[in-house]
Each structure stands twice: as C-alpha cells, then as structure tokens.
Specification:
Layout (H helix, E strand, L loop, with lengths): L32 H4 L8 E5 L4 H6 L6 E5 L3 H16 L2 H7 L14 H11 L5 H7 L13 H4 L6 H4 L1 H10 L5 E2 L3 H7 L4 E5 L3 H8 L8 H14 L1 E11 L11 H9 L2 E10 L9 E10 L1
Parallel strand pairs: 1-2, 1-4, 2-3, 4-5
Antiparallel strand pairs: 5-7, 6-7
Helix pairs in contact: 3-6, 10-12, 12-13
Pfam families: DUF3419
Protein name: DUF3419 family protein
InterPro entries: DUF3419
C-alpha cells in the first residue's frame, strides 16, 4: 500500500529547534523496547515519534491495536517507509544487506551500493512517490542506507536486526501504519484520534539541552504546551512516555521540569530506570530512563 500521509515541505515550522531537513537515523538510537515487554500494550492505540522506525517495529508483536508515527524530519519519514516495506518484502539476509554500514560490523554483512539498489527495486512499489524521489538520489549512487558507527554498535540490541527469529516475528506481526511529517506539537493539534499511549522519545530532553541560552526562557512554556497537548490526546488512564539518556535515580534533575509540569497537569510519574550493554563495546554499561506519566 502506498503511503499517502504527507504534508508538503515548508508548510510548517517548529519552535523546538528540530530541523525538517535533518539527516535521518538508520537504526534506533533510543531503546525503550528493552523494557516495553513489561508494560501492557495489548489493544492499545499508540502515537509515536517515528525516528528510525525500529521502536515501531518492536511494538507490533506486543499486541498494539494501531500506531500513528510522527516526525518533523522528512527524511526520517522516508526511512520509515523504506524499513516498513523492507520488512514486508525482504528475507532476513536481504534486510541486513540493505541496511548494512559501509564498514565491517559483527552484525551486518558487507554490502555495496549496487547490491542495495537491487534490493530496493524489489520493494519500490510499496513506497510513496515522494519517498521514491529522494531515496533514488541516494540508493545505488551512495552507501545509503548507511548507519553511523554510533548507531551500528547498538544493533545487537534490536531484535529484528540481531536475530533471525526476531526478524521473522516482526515480519509476521507488521501492520501498515501512517507516517505524518509534522512537528509533534502541530501533530497533536491536528490529529483527531485519541490515544492510549503517546511516546515522545527524547524530544523534551533534546529541547532542554540544545536550545541556546538566550532561548532558555522559552523552554518551560514549550514543554508546558507540549505536555498539555499530549494530555488532551490521551484517553482516560492513558500513558505519556518520555526517554532520557541517563539515570533518574542518580540524577533526578534530568526530569525535574517535566515532573513538575506533568504533576500540575494531573499525571502520576512512574519512572523505569534500566541498564544494558552492547557486545560491540567491551565492558560497556549504560543506564537510561523511560519516564511514564499516567493520566490520573
């Protein structure tokens, strides 16, 4: 099915500082799926930041009812289309080949642009015209899709990349999902549906860390508006999820503005702090936080 869910370029702008022309991530850079299995997803309607599409793929086997993906970055939307079509059409070996980096990695085979172009042509019919137009400036003439080493070192964590059985489980449960190219705050205003779960990824953390000092007074009002809009789109008992690249237990200030705002909005705060490692970094240890704000 061709994806018709699109908004034309330059029809919007975001106060968050995110770039609509940003280069896309090819692999997941946040890892909430490491703890998602401990939560109730069955029959839930989910709004999620699209990112690389990997978080979305891990949700279908957990029994979600439907997913709507949103991303301000147009190229991220195209990568989602590509990954969704690839999972549907390709074998595990072909899937790894298409998304392989152009350097040696223990998870991926070595691939060249010609091989990737052949695989792309097998699934091209499932893509929107806009996605085709951009992807065909990349695939075959460059190593794209070519994950950075910072992305590829975490590939062992992603079940549909690290294990054949994980890939075929993802293929079995995959459903079509709309991909909306809008800033999240505008999407929350425009999308008519109500959701059981909204996942904002690390957008709040990004805003707090990257807005310039002269714009610091804008951070709290932006977050207040974002969380207010999210609450209006949540069903009774719904959950708002936010990702943080650090331990809330060791550094409560990571989420202190978010907690204050969400408590004032009537949310109950339930953090999940979790640790993990990747075999591609010797003696690695990372601790992240999935902040869950539940509608009271």
């Amino acid at each position: 099915m061709e994806d018709k869910t699109r908004v034309s370029r330059n029809s919007f702008q975001s106060k968050s500082g995110f770039d609509i022309d940003a280069s896309p991530y090819i692999l997941a850079t946040d890892f909430p799926f490491l703890v998602w299995s401990g939560l109730d997803w069955k029959g839930k309607s989910v709004l999620i930041i699209a990112n690389s599409g990997d978080n979305i793929i891990t949700l279908w086997p957990l029994g979600v009812k439907n997913i709507v993906a949103v991303d301000i970055a147009k190229k991220a939307c195209f990568v989602n289309e590509l990954k969704r079509a690839s999972l549907k059409i390709l074998s595990f070996t072909e899937f790894l080949l298409l998304f392989a980096p152009n350097y040696r990695n223990n998870i991926f085979p070595l691939a060249n642009p010609i091989e990737k172009k052949k695989l792309y042509l097998k699934l091209r019919h499932l893509l929107s015209d806009e996605a085709k137009d951009w992807l065909e400036t990349q695939i075959g003439s460059t190593p794209f899709p070519n994950p950075s080493w910072q992305e590829a070192i975490f590939a062992p964590l992603i079940p549909h990349f690290s294990k054949k059985e994980g890939f075929y489980q993802a293929k079995q449960y995959l459903k079509f999902y709309p991909i909306i190219n809008l800033p999240i705050e505008l999407a929350l205003e425009k999308i008519p549906e109500i959701f059981d779960i909204i996942y904002l990824s690390n957008i709040p953390e990004y805003i707090k860390q990257t807005l310039t000092p002269e714009k610091e007074p804008e951070i709290k009002p932006y977050l207040e508006n974002l969380y207010k809009l999210a609450k209006e789109k949540l069903a009774s008992g719904g959950k708002l999820m936010v990702y943080s690249f650090g331990s809330f237990k060791k550094n409560p200030d990571l989420l202190s503005p978010d907690i204050e705002i969400c408590k004032n909005l009537g949310f109950i705060f339930k953090p999940i702090v979790f640790s993990f490692s990747t075999p591609l970094i010797k003696n690695s240890h990372f601790t992240h936080t999935l902040a869950i704000f539940e509608v009271n």
